[in-house]
Write the structure tokens for this entry.
Amino acid sequence: MDTNQPEKQLVLISRDLFFFSNIQFIAKSLRAEASLVNGLSQMNDHPGATCILVDLELPGLDFNALENIHDQSKVTIIGYAPHVKTDLFDAARKVGVTRLYSRGQLNRSTSEILSEGLR
């Protein structure tokens, strides 16, 4: 086995390129490969994903599709949104997402949250 090869795959579902560069750096330090997609429909291109980090504010986010991904795979799903967007947190909980963080929490503890999600 190549020890330089990433062992896990993290997929960020977002349109935030700046945040993705931070995610890439942290994922690499956790021996994971990071990919950026701008919608759940592109998850078919990442069948081996270990962890999905999803921006709950993404326009047009299909919570039913998120539920299908949650129900059909063993992937860890982490959702995040501004702390005041309680309706988004409620919608995510309804489809089975239990790892939910405010943007502030995620920004402060990105490495720890991703490390846990990639286990």
Observations:
- The longest strand covers residues 8-13.
- Residues 64 and 95 are 7 Å apart (CA to CA).
- Helices lie at 17-29, 63-72, 86-94, 103-108, 110-117.
- The two ends are 19 Å apart (CA to CA).
